[in-house]
Design a protein that fits this description.
α11 (276-282) packs antiparallel against α12 (289-296). This protein folds into three domains: 6-43 and 218-297 and 408-466, FAD/NAD(P)-binding domain (3-Layer(bba) Sandwich), CATH 3.50.50; 100-194, no CATH class; 300-404, Polyamine Oxidase, Chain A, domain 2, CATH 3.90.660. The chain has a seven-stranded mixed beta sheet with strand order 7-6-14-15-16-13-17. Strands 9-2-1-12-18 form a five-stranded parallel beta sheet. It contains 17 helices and 18 strands. β14 and β15 (332-335) form a beta hairpin. By secondary structure, the protein is an alpha/beta fold.
Length: 491
């Protein structure tokens, strides 16, 4: 008798969803369907939108990972279409551009000897008298860099990104995003740059000086991955948002559906990278009020990119500039031609992406495209990055739920939801929004890779929550839910 083919539903065609789809297609023996809510683009926040031959990265995505498995996956999908690009970024502070990571001599010169000396004293004080058990972003960063550098180079930008005071942001986010970097390591790297990082200890992601990047932006990776998955028999449905799920406990199978109809047939596994709040809200099985409330307590930060096209005046060549100026709303400026020259069709032109952080439904989010372009143009002139009257064309991208918020309650909410979803076998959470982790795409991909290994093995060999920020799996000596039982869930 032939073994019954397992059906797998994948909700979301971002890095996690498409990684899982392609690998399941390669493994063979599975009926795989991907459901993507966008009508045109795959890749999620790692997609690349385009307009009149211009390509726009939604947020900036460097292709660099400590995981060789992830690096090999990228190579397998795109090969020679991946460019080697220099990493170049700056911080705009007090009308000056500071190289980031720090270049010691430049920073001393531009801050001035008095300010630089006060920053060093503040740093030394933080090392001698650190805050014990830092509970929020401000305390964690002040411990690492000193309070003065925190106020200069972290506070303004971070509060723009999150829309809340740094004291309300969990220390987890700082530890995750700035892991391994301190003032001393940044200065050491500036004075003694590491030519062969892999032979001199662990690589600090914040200090890498080059990365790979698809010729036409990160979306090229995921469009190609989609095509290769489809060639293996995977079905990818566009404009198919999943809004309801029901678990049949007697059959250990799932039904999924749109607002008013169910997808035909049932699924053995559901790999979900949709926002966790949305997933819980869509489950039709009984859930406790505590779980429902925890899901509603999860917060998200939304994101607008205002794209300006103009004659290239060669004002700056950085991949992006972090704007540490409270007098303008823009948080970061991307230079798409510096990411890849292929993203701008005319070498005489420049294309900049101005990133504004907001909440869906607030005044900024609801502004007209024309008003957003006018704001962006005015602020670029104020910053001295363009001249007035230079902009020839424009484009606006709105990205809801771009960043899961790490407020003080988020971890408690996650644990409550994980406990509440534990009885539902075959439900596997992956990716940034699926796990409510502010991660990079290599972390999303690694969670998907391990999910596929679990499905192929038919047992819970890997606990996806043990994948750290660097896409490394940290085993604590015991396999989660080991013992050869059928895969329960990765929540």
């Amino acid at each position: 008798m032939n073994k019954q083919v397992k059906r797998v539903a994948i909700i979301g065609a971002g890095p996690a969803g498409l990684t899982a789809a392609y690998l399941l297609g390669k493994a063979g023996g599975f009926n795989v369907q991907v459901f993507e809510k966008d009508a045109q683009y795959v890749g999620g926040i790692s997609r690349t939108e385009h307009y009149k031959g211009y390509y726009f990265d939604i947020g900036g995505h460097r292709f660099f990972s400590k995981s060789q498995e992830v690096e090999d996956f990228w190579t397998e999908i795109l090969g020679d279409e991946l460019l080697e690009r220099p990493r170049s970024s700056s911080i705009y502070y007090n009308h000056k551009l500071f190289s980031y990571p720090l270049v010691a001599g430049e920073a001393l010169r531009k801050l001035g000897l008095l300010e630089a000396g006060l920053c060093v004293l503040s740093y030394l004080q933080s090392r001698m008298f650190p805050i014990k058990n830092p509970a929020n972003f401000e305390e964690w960063v002040s411990n690492q860099f000193g309070g003065r550098l925190f106020r200069i180079f972290f506070k303004t930008y971070t509060e723009k990104v999150w829309g809340i005071p740094c004291t309300q942001i969990s220390a987890d986010w700082a530890a995750q995003r700035i892991k391994g970097l301190s003032l001393s390591s940044a200065i050491w790297n500036a004075v003694f740059p590491r030519r062969k990082q892999h032979k001199q200890g662990p690589i600090i992601k914040t200090l890498i000086d080059s990365f790979r990047y698809p010729k036409f932006g990160p979306g090229q990776m995921w469009e190609t991955c989609k095509a290769k998955a489809e060639a293996l028999g995977v079905v990818v449905g566009m404009n198919q948002p999943i809004t309801q799920l029901f678990y049949h406990q007697d059959k250990h199978q799932w039904q999924i559906g749109h607002q008013n109809s169910w997808v035909e047939g049932e699924f053995d596994y559901v790999i979900c990278s949709a926002p966790l709040r949305q997933l819980v809200g869509g489950i039709k099985n009984p859930l406790s009020l505590a779980v429902r409330d925890a899901a509603q307590g999860l917060a998200y930060r939304d994101f607008i990119t205002v794209v300006l096209m103009l004659k290239d005046q060669h004002r700056f060549n950085e991949n992006w500039i972090y704007i540490h100026d409270p007098n303008v709303k823009v948080g970061r400026v991307q230079n798409f031609k510096s990411w890849s020259p292929y993203m701008v069709p005319d070498k005489e032109m420049a294309c900049y992406g101005l990133e504004y952080f907001c909440f869906e439904g607030d005044g900024l989010w609801n502004s007209s495209d024309a008003d957003l372009v006018a704001l962006g143009t005015s602020e670029m002139v104020t910053l001295g990055l363009i001249d007035g009257g230079m902009v020839l064309d424009s484009y606006v991208v709105r990205q809801p739920k771009a960043y899961p918020v790490y407020n003080q309650e988020y971890q408690t909410h996650i644990e409550t939801i994980k406990r509440g979803l534990q009885p539902f076998e075959g439900l596997i959470l992956t990716g940034r929004n699926g796990m409510h982790k502010y991660n990079n795409q290599d972390h999303s991909m690694m969670t998907a890779m391990l999910a596929v290994k679990n499905i192929v093995a038919g047992e819970m060999k890997y606990d996806l929550w043990k994948v750290n920020q660097d896409a490394e799996y940290h085993e604590d000596g015991e396999l989660a839910n080991a013992g050869g039982r059928s895969i329960p869930t990765s929540v």
